Amino acid sequence: MDLITKLEKRFGSWAIPNLALYIIAIQLIGVVLLFTHRAEFSDLILHGNSVLDRGQWWRLLSFMMLPKTMSPIWLFFAFYIFYMIGSMLEQQWGSFRFNLFIMIGYLLTVAMAFLNQGVIITNTYFLGCVFLAFATLFPNIEFRLFFILPVKVKWLAWITAAFYMLTLFSADVGGRLGVAAAFTNYLLFFGKDFLNGFKAGQRRKAFVAEQSVAAAVPRHVCKTCGSSDKSDERMHFRYCSTCGECFCEEHISNHEH
């Protein structure tokens, strides 16, 4: 029994069902605040110094309110896609595991803000990690890119992962820390599966190599001339009833003991 299963047995009743809806609701609050100019982007970001030095503890939640876009049309599709992938993950994993995935990703992201208190932290990479988890479990589901071109979600995930890797080596410190938190969360849940898959692949390669070596070894070799079933597939071999040795058709009757 793995650790998550043990935790679920003890704390499973604490899980919040339909958690994706609550995350969308939080972002909707952020959209309203930004549209009505009751808050600015800089008011919602997570900034370690602002939390510790100025007591702005609301930033621990407000950074989750940041929407990916302010376009009403794209917001609709962004919320719809996030709800879809969140619901499918929850259905596949169960509410507790999905809650745990979100909670650990959130805590890791917040921890990065205090690891380097001067950087700006957003929810971009944290929520993007949810998409990577979805693509790992449902790689062959197709999305309509630009509502026309069908693309399997696994290819979009590879593009996302490549962008994250580029960010990890070229972006500002806040972006790097956000990606580090996202990748850490992802590996906590999928790292063991990748390791087991790698080991299984190595075992398959070793088995195929062994079979290839075994297939190359001749089963019958004439003791007199050295011809074998591999050197001449049409050759027939017999075993001497006296000495038990293998001989080809030519030498089975005229060999010496």
Task: Present the secondary structure layout.
Blueprint: H1 3-11, H2 19-35, H3 41-44, E1 46-47, H4 48-54, H5 59-62, H6 72-93, H7 95-115, E2 120-121, H8 124-137, E3 142-145, E4 149-152, H9 153-170, H10 173-216, E5 237-239, E6 246-248
Antiparallel strand pairs: 1-2, 3-4, 5-6
What brief labels describe this structure?
single chain; Rhomboid-like fold; two-stranded antiparallel ribbon; 10 helices; elongated
Characterization of the model:
The protein has helices at residues 3-11, 19-35, 41-44, 48-54, 59-62, 72-93, 95-115, 124-137, 153-170, 173-216; strands spanning 46-47, 120-121, 142-145, 149-152, 237-239, 246-248. It is mainly alpha-helical and 257 residues long. It has two domains: 3-192, Rhomboid-like fold; 214-257, no CATH class. The strands form three sheets. The protein has a two-stranded antiparallel sheet. Helix 7 packs antiparallel against helix 8 (124-137), helix 7 packs across helix 10 and helix 9 (153-170) packs across helix 10. The radius of gyration is 31 Å and the shape is elongated. The N and C termini lie far apart (64 Å). The relative contact order is 0.08.
The class by helix and strand makeup works out as mainly alpha
Task: Count up the domains.
Answer: 2
- Strand order within the widest beta sheet: 1-2
Give me the number of helical elements.
10
Order of helices and strands: HHHEHHHHEHEEHHEE
Please tally the β strands and state the result.
6
Strand content: 5-15%
Terminal CA distance: 64 Å
Largest sheet: 2 strands, antiparallel
Radius of gyration: 31 Å
| CATH fold topology of the largest domain | Rhomboid-like fold
| Name of the level-1 CATH class of the largest domain | Mainly Alpha
Shape: elongated
Q: What is the annotated CATH architecture of the largest domain?
A: Up-down Bundle
Helix percent reads 55-70%
Task: Flag low-confidence runs.
Answer: none
The residue-averaged pLDDT reads: 85
